[in-house]
Amino acid sequence: MVDxxxxxxxxxxxxxxxxxxxxxxxxxxxxxxxxxxxxxxNGALGITNITEDLALxxxxxxxxxTKKYEPYRVxxxxxxxxxxxxxxxxxxxxPPDDVAELRTxxxxxxxxxxxxxxxxxxxPDASVAEIExxxxxxxxxxxxxxxxxxxxxxxxxxxxLEALIGPDVMAMQSMLFIKxxxxxxxxxxxDSYYIPxxxxxxxxxxxxxxxxxxxxxxxxxxxxxxxxxxYPTIDKRGRNHxxxxxxxxxxxxxxxxxxxxxxxxxxxxxxxxxxVPAVMDPGDVAFFGGHVLHRSKQNSSxxxxxxxxxxxYANARAYTRWGSRxxxxxxxxxxxxxxxxxxxxxxxxxxxxxxxxxxxxTEDGTADGDMADMMGDGDMLELTTVDPExxxxxxxxx
Length: 398
Ligand SMILES: O=C(O)CCC(=O)C(=O)O
Fold this sequence. Notes:
Blueprint: H1 9-21, E1 39-42, E2 47-50, H2 76-85, E3 87-90, H3 96-110, H4 128-132, E4 137-139, H5 146-152, H6 155-164, E5 169-177, E6 186-189, H7 191-194, E7 203-208, E8 219-222, H8 265-269, E9 275-278, E10 285-289, E11 294-296, E12 308-315, E13 335-338, H9 370-374
Parallel strand pairs: 2-4
Antiparallel strand pairs: 1-2, 3-10, 4-5, 5-12, 5-13, 6-11, 7-10, 7-12, 8-9, 8-11
The structure holds 2-oxoglutaric acid.
């Protein structure tokens, strides 16, 4: 096990900021973002990342969160639906009082009623409308705010992930979407393009804080695209599939909301009739695999926010270099949420209860996880000794 005391937030975020941010530049509203020393804002887009120098020390102690939840047990039908569609919406997964807490928190954050490391208060003369439009989304707040860590490791969300991509689950990324009226969408993309893991098991969990529908810019999924490979841009050639797919075409401008320039839309178009809006109520969570093409459109409502909390997870036994500037493995920076792993893993900074801080040790110092304990040794067919007389004609009497 490796301690994540050395803070690594910035290295984790840099590629995501630059890659996921830039394509949105053409469509994003212009927002008055203050120059921040500690965060990595992209003012034109309203996208902000929390950086390394703000990261708190990792805690191995249990935090204050003690709330108990009824475990969520995924049905076979839901499991099959996730595999068939590429996504699964679990209605009412997160209880209303939790969603209400998160919604109040987001309002406090927007209006600077709480001190958020890395975010500066709005200018004193800013109007309410200006304040509300300052942020489109903020990445990795779970590294500086306890409540974001708690939602990233929400037991009911982890219950579903454990069944869909587990049993061993690592929590990699959190994103808070604020998406005010007029806020930009995000064009077709595949999340594993941004966050590669080997084997590839990435899964997003998109929690609706407000009702999300076509008017205020809900998510859209191209069902069936979970079977597609990850399409590389020219600079990312080989990143997900190496050289194994002979005719894998390159795409351009993924995430750009303009389908004319985002050539991943050509792949999405193959799925005409299967591109569906994810209309969701507060507390609903959409789980979607890393290959699924998805997008969202502009919030065209006059006065409705479309706030959501998104976590990205992978199987904890998958290797990743996501966020490394040096090309080194970064598993030690991502929280072991469920199960166990033979790989290094990170701890929650605020001690939210999860697999990383549950007592479990094995002789080799790895964490194996309950499922591994239950795992049988399978049924290997044994070699049977050949009876030398069996095929000897002399031994047969007819
Ligand atoms: O919520 C959105 O607008 C986009 C979210 C998204 O693409 C993601 O979480 O991967």
